[in-house]
């Protein structure tokens, strides 16, 4: 068997901090995995926001809250063990007036029997730093998910307002066109355009429709192009950061 501090020292406090460190080490990959999940959702939301992302963010936030509630008691345990005072352990027993030693009650003196070694205190400080880092990361991810949910609703609301504006513009433009169409459909006795075939009608209608659609959808096309460029830039920057780390 390997010769370790646990085997050489035979100290209960060192064993306790080893168990706590093991729990913390197992929690670190979980936090890293959730960072990747939140980062992927953030990339999708910034480039292609959708109302469906809110359900994924809600589930992720709930899971992060559950992990946070499971990790918080460990921080309290580490703080209580680190702040434990050992000066009560070596106090001699008091004597009664008759000279007989006074026996203390175990229930009243249970805390004084806990002794934390210097080695355990050193490792507990390191464990406290790690657990604080984990809790702060979880809180940061939870806030990010909440902010992304607000961003989704604000973005969708802005898109709806833009769509209403475009529909209003189309209505304003095509109201006089509808009036002109109704006017020229009145049966005249002599109307020169009636001599042309349907190709003449489609030759005028298709270019007009294409120009109108491109003009009205110019903001959407520009936004889509910018989102594609931003998405490629973000993916490349994340890959570069991952390689540098």
Automatic annotation (TrEMBL):
Residues 102-111 have a biased composition (Basic and acidic residues). The keyword Transmembrane helix applies. It holds the Pfam family CorA. The chain crosses the membrane at residues 167-188, 200-221. InterPro entries: CorA_cytoplasmic_dom, CorA_TM1_TM2, MgTranspt_CorA/ZnTranspt_ZntB. It is found in: Cell membrane. GO terms for cellular component: plasma membrane. It is a multi-pass membrane protein. Its main location: membrane. Keywords: Cell membrane, Membrane, Transmembrane, Transmembrane helix, Transport. One of its GO terms (molecular function) is magnesium ion transmembrane transporter activity. Residues 85-111 are annotated as: Disordered. Belongs to the CorA metal ion transporter (MIT) (TC 1.A.35) family. This is Uncharacterized protein. It comes from Mollisia scopiformis (Conifer needle endophyte fungus).
